[in-house]
Specification:
The complex is a heterodimer of chains A (137) and B (248).
Chain A: H1 26-55, H2 59-69, H3 72-99, E1 103-104, E2 107-108, H4 111-136
Helix pairs in contact in A: 1-3, 3-4
Chain B: E1 5-12, E2 22-29, H1 36-47, E3 66-69, E4 72-75, E5 89-93, E6 99-101, E7 104-105, H2 108-116, H3 138-145, H4 155-159, H5 161-165, H6 172-182, H7 190-197, H8 211-215, H9 222-242
Parallel strand pairs in B: 1-5
Antiparallel strand pairs in B: 1-2, 3-4, 3-5, 6-7
Classes of the chains: A mainly alpha (137), B alpha+beta (248).
Residues 55-58, 60-65, 75, 77 of chain B line the site of FE2/S2 (inorganic) cluster.
């Protein structure tokens, strides 16, 4: 179905949102932050790919790369990226609970319970990864 | 004894005269049991009879009194002055809609969108009246009841930045109502309605800001309806790619 482009009616006043519309409500700001978080997560993933590539270039190249990551700038970046990743994940889990209706028989499982299950799973997976990490380190 | 008053900054716009809306200040008696709509009625009765705005039921049912109160979409018949004390209270026409005059906005776009999602029960073959009603169990009713509470007040459109930036988006309430009929056990219109909901200007325009559900006075949660329609649409698309005989 095609939509006919809107034609302005004479006499009507057509408001236009200003470029700063997203500062108007707390929820808009949070939304923009959630969108922005993807930039940081993307940079982190590129970095991870580069790191894996360095691994294939031999121990010396890898060590040099890791050394560069120790700079205050990169550490600051990782702290920010981690904060964004956490924010993104937490809001995502809360949202999936609303989106994915889980039913047991005729009753709907309360969204909060679904979110709790998500968080629990997340925690367990994180612990398992941490365990292997500590084992390897 | 002088009565306490509260200040209202009301948007005025006279078509054909004003190039853009401007605010006019009114002072009204401050009564704890008054809502913003009472204050507007007071202005219209006592101060300026030319002030234009819509309202009807004064009890949160008709959905016609939606305006921006201090920048937030509200039913003015449910927005108490006491919650904005000591004021001033800014009263503006619903955001994102063309302004017809003062606080009156144009409904045309919303009405067209509402019709587009066919918010009524579609049957392949209507059964004769003599055969009685289409029956439904309480559990079947529960599936969609929340989405049927919509009063078409359009507060969700005023809260939606996507609609504000690009009004071709079919919008929260229309999708919620389309979804409501898709969930109705008596309905057979899914095949007709779902393509309309999942077209480009439908659910996929939504970036899930979620403010529509925050401002909805009826707890409809249109954001949930939109995201669930996305999930249903995506599932069908996958199935149609995977299975030779198509989706569902
Ligand atoms: S979904 Fe809620 S906010 Fe939107 S029109 Fe319906 S009742 Fe109003
Ligand atoms: S006057 Fe009917 S909803 Fe406010």
């Amino acid at each position: 179905m095609t939509t006919v482009p809107r034609r302005d009616r004479p006499g009507f006043y057509y408001p236009k949102p200003p470029a700063t519309w997203w500062l108007r409500r707390p929820n808009y700001v949070l939304f923009m932050l959630r969108e922005l978080s993807s930039v940081f997560i993307a940079i982190f993933l590129v970095l991870l790919l580069v790191q894996i590539h360095q691994l294939s270039q031999g121990p010396a190249a890898y060590a040099a790369f890791v050394e560069r990551l120790r700079s205050p700038g990169w550490i600051a970046f990782h702290v920010v990226a981690l904060a964004f990743a956490l924010y993104h994940s937490i809001t995502w889990f809360n949202l999936t609970a609303v989106v994915q209706v889980v039913r047991l028989g005729e009753r709907q499982v309360p969204p909060r319970l679904v979110a709790a299950a998500n968080f629990l799973l997340w925690g367990v997976v994180s612990l398992v990864i941490l365990f292997f990490f500590l084992l390897g380190g | 004894m002088s009565e306490e008053t509260i200040t209202l900054e009301v948007t005025r716009y006279r078509p054909g005269h004003d190039r853009e809306p401007r605010a006019q200040t009114f002072s009204v008696p401050y009564r704890k049991d008054w809502v913003v709509l009472d204050a507007l009625n007071h202005i219209k009765d006592r101060t300026d009879g030319t002030l234009s705005y819509r309202w009807s039921c004064r009890m949160g049912v008709c959905g016609s009194c939606g305006m921006m109160v201090n920048g937030v979409p509200k039913l003015t018949c449910a927005a108490f002055l006491r919650d904005y004390h000591p004021g001033p209270i800014r009263v503006e026409p619903l955001a994102n809609f063309p302004v017809v005059r003062d606080l009156v906005i144009s409904l045309d776009d919303f009405m067209e969108k509402l019709r587009r999602v066919k918010p009524w029960i579609i049957r392949e073959v209507e059964k004769p009246v003599a055969e009685g009603e289409y029956l439904q169990t309480p559990a079947q009713l529960d599936l969609y009841k929340q989405f049927s509470m919509c009063i078409n007040c359009m507060l969700c459109y005023a809260a939606c930045p996507v609609y504000g930036l690009d009004p071709v988006f079919i919008g929260p309430a229309a999708i919620a109502l389309g979804y409501r009929y898709n969930l109705d056990s008596r309905d057979e219109g899914y095949r007709i309605r779902q393509p309309i909901l999942t077209e480009a200007v439908g659910v996929w325009d939504c970036t899930f800001v979620g403010e529509c559900s925050v401002v909805c006075p009826k707890g409809v949660d249109p954001a949930a309806a939109i995201q669930r329609s996305k999930v249903a649409g995506a599932k069908e698309w996958f199935m149609s790619m995977l299975l030779p005989w198509g989706g569902r």
